[in-house]
Write a structure and sequence with these properties.
globular; two-stranded antiparallel sheet; about 5% strand; about 30% helix; two-stranded antiparallel ribbon; 2 domains; Cytochrome Bc1 Complex, Chain D, domain 2; mainly alpha
Length: about 400
């Protein structure tokens, strides 16, 4: 009989019907990978848009030329100026019907144009958008903008031209503006020559405009920050205090979303960031769930104020916000803590850790990027638009 009982127990164990050993351990919730490496020193480009010096030169001129805007008063550089790290020192942008640069930019009077809803991303390193924790990415599929609404720099480059409050203005419909811009460029002999040098014989098209600007943007990379030097083997590139900040950055949970060479998972997360008081309507994002993309942490020196609507003027205030929401505080009346991304619960930021983390974040700054501004643009309009 003991033999029979042992046989029954063995069969039950194999079938999972009875416990014949220690209780199985509870499966732990998996966290995102925290992998950190240096940025690559070169960029990938789509097969149908290889990088050439002619395309970079043409793209730079288009980037600074307000001929691309409906009222010929705004250029890409208006909100992404090299003197401001190819971003701008203001919370949300003023595009059409504005004057001045960065924090000094104001609407003209009278005005019926709204603010741009979101903070202007820096163009620096957008060539690497979509990069995974191991440095792999496809330039055609890299996510763009705070809401990931388009992929690839070629698509990103023409989106502001289509947007009423950014560059299009009131005098052209969305389905008209690109045709208008193309006709303007075709009427300028210098642009005819430049497009032929960059693309060969053929008409100027909206697609070529996007390709030229995208190629210029791929030339704006910063791949030699002190953190990059450290990760490539120079152990003296960052201090012991900064290294302590890096370890705290990972330990408290910042690296769950801000990981990989670009310090971004390129996913959208619900955080409940406070609303901008400058907007008449709440910005709930395209899915109306208040989710916005994780920004890169590179070159933060040039990208204040922070978050998708520039709510916070300092990195310390950003960390204080994360401390508050991880503790269950609600800072946006439209977003309850039940809606917060589950990773918020994994954060454990303390006030005493903040200075060290900010010290580490400063190792991600790299000032070695082109600040070249054309002396003139082929349209003859003011370089950069009305920014003086």
């Amino acid at each position: 009989m003991p033999v029979l009982r042992n046989l029954i127990c063995l069969i039950a164990c194999l079938l999972g019907l009875a416990g014949c050993g220690p209780e199985p351990q509870q499966v732990k919730e998996k966290l995102p990978l925290q992998v950190f490496t240096a940025l690559p020193t070169t960029v990938n480009a789509p097969a149908n848009n290889p990088i050439t010096q002619e395309k970079i030169a043409l793209g730079r001129l288009l980037f600074f030329d307000p001929v691309l805007s409906g009222d010929k008063d705004v250029s890409c550089a208006t909100c992404h100026h090299p003197d401001q790290g190819y971003a701008e020192f203001r919370d949300i942008s003023i595009g059409v019907n504005g004057s001045g640069l960065g924090s000094k930019r104001t609407f003209k009077s009278p005005n019926s144009i709204p603010f741009v809803k979101r903070n202007a991303h820096t163009i620096l390193n957008t060539a690497f958008n979509g990069m995974d924790p191991y440095g792999r990415y496809q330039p055609e599929t890299g996510e763009m903008f705070w809401d990931n609404r388009v992929t690839g720099l070629e698509e990103q480059a023409v989106e502001p031209i289509l947007a009423l409050e950014e560059m299009r203005g009131l005098h052209y419909e969305k389905d008209q503006i690109l045709s208008e811009v193309v006709q303007r460029l075709r009427s300028i002999p210098e642009y005819q020559d430049l497009f032929e040098e960059a693309f060969g014989p053929g008409d100027i098209t909206a697609g070529k405009i996007g390709q030229a600007i995208a190629t210029f943007e791929r030339s704006l990379i910063t791949t030699n920050s002190r953190f990059d030097q450290f990760m490539r083997g120079d152990r003296d590139a960052i201090s012991s205090a900064e290294l302590e900040g890096f370890e705290l950055f990972k330990k408290v949970g910042c690296g769950n979303c801000h990981n990989g060479p670009m310090f971004s998972d390129y996913q959208q997360h619900v955080l409940g960031v406070p609303e901008s008081k400058k907007l008449s309507l709440s910005d709930s994002g395209p899915a109306e769930d208040f989710a916005f993309r994780t920004p890169s942490l590179r070159n933060l020196r040039f990208t204040a104020p922070y978050m998708h609507n520039g709510s916070f003027t300092s990195l310390k205030r950003v960390l204080e916000f994360y401390e508050d929401i991880s503790g269950g505080r609600e800072e946006n009346p439209h977003v309850s803590k039940d809606q917060y991304d589950p990773l918020i619960r994994k954060l454990n930021i303390r006030v005493r850790d903040m200075a060290a983390i900010v010290s580490f974040l400063n190792t991600l700054n790299d000032e070695d990027f082109s600040r070249e501004i054309p002396e003139s643009v082929p349209s003859g309009l003011p370089v950069g638009g009305e920014i003086e």
